[in-house]
Design brief:
This protein is α+β, with helices and mostly antiparallel strands and 205 residues long. 20% of the residues lie in helices and 30% in strands. Strand 1 (19-27) and strand 2 form a beta hairpin. It starts with 12 loop residues before the first helix and ends with a helix.
């Protein structure tokens, strides 16, 4: 986490202790779309804030700040030797007015305060790399924005949840910045990075 703070910011041990990682899996898988809601319910005692956390894959992990979700990664096997990130997303809660009818309760989105000091995409990718290293995998990948499920309009919807441009900004640009490369034999044009560098570093230590 210290290596993922934004320039000019030092993360004290006290502030670092506000963060935690939570492994998650889907619960009540949707029949109409990929993924599903996660098994952990956040802020159940706060009727004025709702965290509707959706996981695009079967398993993943969440970065929590003071016990609340701030970012999520959805993981899948891309091959027998590679993990792929299909979801790399910040999380914001919904601030509600409980006195109003359910359809009219939404007021605004909350801020993900724990992400303000972090290059959180780098952090989540680095955690994924450590997971892959623990599984003795050769590489990790990030799904190209154009392959994101949510760039296609769902049945009975007029437009997709994400435009291709938005998906490319959220996935392709961070992948390039974090040293991922496209491979000539990948017809889907996803982004790939070797795990071997981390493994060598651990042996040297």
């Amino acid at each position: 986490m210290q290596s993922s703070t934004l320039p000019g910011i030092e993360l004290s041990e006290q502030r670092a202790n506000n963060y935690s990682l939570q492994a998650v899996c889907i619960d009540n898988q949707s029949q109409d779309t990929i993924g599903g809601g996660v098994t952990k319910v956040y802020a159940a005692d706060k009727k004025d804030i709702l965290y509707d956390v959706w996981l695009d894959t079967t398993v993943g992990f969440i970065l929590e700040h003071k016990g609340l979700p701030n970012a999520i990664v959805g993981l899948d096997y891309n091959s027998a030797s590679e993990l792929i990130i299909r979801q790399l997303q910040g999380i914001r809660g919904k601030r509600l007015d409980p006195s109003k009818p359910r359809a009219d309760r939404f007021i605004s989105k909350t801020s993900a305060r724990g992400l303000m000091t972090l290059d959180w995409r780098k952090f989540m990718v680095d955690v994924t790399q450590r997971v892959a290293d623990g599984l003795d995998l050769a590489s990790i990948a990030i799904q190209a924005g154009k392959n994101n499920y949510w760039t296609t309009a769902l049945p009975n919807e007029f437009k997709p949840h994400l435009t291709v441009e938005q998906a490319c900004t959220a996935y392709d640009k961070p992948a390039q910045r974090l040293g991922f490369k496209r491979l000539p034999d990948d017809n889907e044009a996803n982004w790939h990075r070797q795990v071997a560098q981390l493994r060598t570093f651990k042996r040297d230590r």
